Amino acid sequence: MLHSTQPTVPGRPSSTAAAQSPHPALSPREQQVLQHIAQGHTYAGTARRIGISVHTVDVYLRRIRAKCGLSSQAELVRLALALDL
């Protein structure tokens, strides 16, 4: 059996811990978009508030759905609540 010899960095989770996390890591921008959507803002409202296009909001939400295996708006809101956004 092979064991990983990668050193761990204090204060940072190991790659094994990150892989076992119930929620994949979201980028700061993905978190920001998710937070706005969970607060009930539309795609257009979110785009306007953070200075990106509506298409880009859609792309970020598609990435979040793909990373987390989500398919509905309600699941996105539950994720935001779980991440304390």
Structural account:
- The protein has helices at residues 15-20, 28-38, 43-50, 54-68, 73-82.
- It is built from 5 helices and no strands.
- Helix 3 crosses helix 4.
- It is 59% helix and 0% strand.
- The N and C termini lie far apart (40 Å).
- It is mostly helical.
- It is globular.
Helix content: 55-70%
> Mean pLDDT, rounded to whole units?
82
**Cα gyration radius (Å):** 16 Å
Number of helices: 5
Shape by Cα distribution: globular
Q: Largest sheet, if any?
A: none
End-to-end C-alpha gap: 40 Å
Structural class: mainly alpha
Reading the helices and strands in chain order gives HHHHH
E-strand count: 0
Uncertain runs are 3-20
As a percent range, the share of strand residues is under 5%
Summary, kept brief:
The chain has 85 residues and is an all-alpha fold. The chain has 5 helices and no strands.
